[in-house]
Amino acid sequence: xxxxxxxxxxxxxxxxxxxxxxxxxxxxxxxxxxxxxxxxxxxxxxxxxxxxxxxxxxxxxxxxxxxxxxxxxxxxxxxxxxxxxxxxxxxxxxxxxxxxxxxxxxxxxxxxxxxxxxxxxxxxxxxxxxxxxxxxxxxxxxxxxxxxxxxxxxxxxxxxxxxxxxxxxxxxxxxxxxxxxxxxxxxxxxxxxxxxxxxxxxxxxxxxxxxxxxxxxxxxxxxxxxxxxxxxxxxxxxxxxxxxxxxxxxxxxxxxxxxxxxxxxxxxxxxxxxxxxxxxxxxxxxxxxxxxxxxxxxxxxxxxxxxxxxxxxxxxxxxxxxxxxxxxxxxxxxxxxxxxxxxxxxxxxxxxxxxxxxxxx
Length: 361
Hints:
By secondary structure, this protein is α/β, with parallel strands linked by helices. The protein has 10 helices and 15 strands.
């Protein structure tokens, strides 16, 4: 079987996964979280028995103990009580569920996103807890031809329905249902950069149909592109990028990824006057950082997005050379992103409806 024959075979294996395989996590204390679930659940035909309701803090950042007691433990108990441990493949958190877990940083960080930590709940429920220092290798990473199922892959794929407000999240859900395999893959390299990041972007170009790629390798920052179905770049880590918004016209189902350390740090809305800045000028900071925001891409029209709640290091950001071809070939949003993410119990976020798919080319 040739390379693309394998891709088509793999894609055909995953299309049978439905709302029956999705768990929706709601923070009952948050009116926004409840509103998102009420809108999403019927549109993906998710059974009422697959909605897990928590009473967690409303803070975006929580302690490890609060994560264990208010989030992981009640979700685990809910899955066991409902005999859903094996049936659930995807967990969807909602705005109002805490975002990130406090802890030490660095290469041996105990910090993590709530969502990345929840991916390992399946292993915990099977008596295989993990250590906290450093990330855990993602068993799905790079397994391009493998169908995602249990027990082959002892993890849940966790995505988040989040934006600046309910309208942003409603638009994610609506656009996911309209996704089709059309449009341009916009790939913007950093000029005069020889790192692996640029190489992965070039490899993504080679794995996609040439006629559907817009590529720039110069100091020009691509903007005002139309019919965008996917975007990958250095974001605000490209020194030539000066503007917060790119002015793209995104198609339904469009996704993005960028090599930015803190773009998932918050889903609070910045002032309209705020713009990306530099680390040496604290006046340009918003929520502790001058960098681009994942939520801006969602607000501007993307259907799926990646982000990082703390410093992930380049090696652990989503690999565009895996993400974009997987999504193009028909893998759903959750699987496309997690195929491309090397580590779990780490800083990564995936925003979007896990079942969103472009379908086969």
